[in-house]
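#onboarding

Welcome to the new folks! Below is a worked example of what a typical request in this channel looks like: someone posts a single protein sequence, and someone else replies with the predicted structure as tokens. Don't worry about understanding the tokens yet, we'll cover that in week two.

Example request:
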Amino acid sequence: MPFLKVQPEKLSSSVVRQIEQLILRGILRPGERLPPERDLAERLGVSRPSLRDAIAELSDHGLLTSRAGSGVFVAEVLGSAFSPALIQLFASHDEAVFDYIAFRRDMEALTAERAALEALRLVWPEASEDEFLSALDYGAAGLEGEPGGHDWPEAFWTIDPIDGTKGFIRGHQYSVCLALVVRGVPTVGVLGCPNLSADLERPFDDPDPHGITVVAGGGDAGVWAVPTDEPGTRLRRLEVAPRSGASGEEGAIRFCESWESSHTDQSATRRVMRVLADAGHAIGPAARIDSQCKYVVAARGQADVFLRRPRDSHRRDWIWDHAPGWLIATRAGLCVTDAHGREVRFGLGRTLAANHGVLAARGTTHALVRRALAQLDGPGER
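Example response:
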């Protein structure tokens, strides 16, 4: 096993990090026995008490397990779902998250291709793989001039299998997203939110075992919901929370924003809240949530404002990160624009090329937030 001498800092912490890395890289595998204490301490260049402290910490985290008379083993952290120990390990090692995303991208692409080909053969039994791929190209939606791209069709579907990957890994909020876009406008939107509760009082960081799936259609169809684990259940109108601030103050304006600071300028949200507070408006605490679950939270009144304002003024979001959420929030009566008050345009390619960020709120509150943003913007941003 490629154990390395550790640097003279807090030795037990160095040992913990090294063993965590070996587990993440698959060098130490679930069920594998660590070398005896004396041997391992010599390989690591640490004292046996420091090694014991490290093993105790890793055992507390659920990564190692001791068996009386047998030694110390790597815990079975893999299974049909992420164990709490593996979630904690991923949360403290960003490189592992990116490795997982790359693995998921490759595996999901192969799985989706195989599943689609088998489904096609139900109606076209003799279809070859090349014929299947050629058929897909007839419906390709891509920017003109891109390799294999075509003009955008009048109607197309957009999907995000897991929106909010880090939330998924942490065991917090994430969503499965599907939308039908017709002539540049989402007309059907579905958000599966497996950890979001139908109980409006349940904290967002407390995953619900049932989840909720939210559906919106065209016209006056409204917004409907069903438990995610009971897809055959009759749809019900999306329940909306009473208008009362999470801070306990009647009418307090409550914001929700991205959990990850890399996804939005959270300091801009704080500045907007200060501008509104200085103008005499009561402000409730902000909620941070992964994925398009934020649209659902705003649509059902658990937050009054969903503000996403990327730090990079040139960044443009993917359409699949917003299409179903935009429709659900709009059908629930919210005004949804970009952060500068412009109409959100879904028919310009794979990105929201004409938009920067998103602002979703009910009419009066939307206008208040837009005025606050305008005060913070330079003249070129208005």
